[in-house]
Fold Lectin/glucanase superfamily protein.
Amino acid sequence: MSIPALIARPLRVFTNETPFPYIPVAWHDAQAISGPADGDALDTWDDGSGRGADLTKAGSTSALYRDGTTGENINGHACVRIVADTTCYFTYAADILSAAAAGEVFIVAQNDADPAASAGRSGFWSFAGSDYSAHHPYTDGKVYECWGRYNRVDCGNPADSLASMHIYNVISAASEWTVNLNTTQLYTTATNTVSFASSGVRVGRSSGSTYNYAGLFGELVIFNRALSAGERTDAYDYLAAKWAP
């Protein structure tokens, strides 16, 4: 993994009661989870944005809370284990993005393997307004993404291993669709049809019924517009500092 070193900048203070320059439509932070003990089932992953967009258990198997001290962790921090080879994933009770003209997402994750050990362990999420399946990565090591767009894109095989902690970012707007990994651009195009699912959103499983995620989630932040370059840098810097060893 190659997380660029943080550049010294003046401390910026935001007044929207989140650490981000714009209030997310959903914000899920494993380090903020309270209540369950290490290894306990996590059937609800609370939304910290204040909008009430909690993630809830959708499959037959519960995700697991890991407190970061006694077992699995992301750089020593608490995380959420998505149990491989099972129907273990989250969904939203209400639509959060289908009416959005644009959107952007950041996720902190750490896969069990890169490339995926099997096609069944290559899933990730389902936010697109289509039936295409996202793979993060597939068995060939490539990332196939369709977040916020109708068609799926081959984003190539990243140089950074997804089996290490990574910060993954997707931007979907009318004039841009971009995928970044640890600030390295994997793919970009100025041609895009913005398309978000109105129902059936999944986190931990792709739209295909056999593609499940195998790994750890640390933090998920979703915005209902594309951020400016400066806002994106602020969000990335916050996540990189927070999830550093």
Remarks:
- The domain at 26-242 is CATH 2.60.120.200 (Jelly Rolls).
- DSSP finds one helix and 16 strands in the chain.
- The CA atoms of residues 52 and 234 lie 24 Å apart.
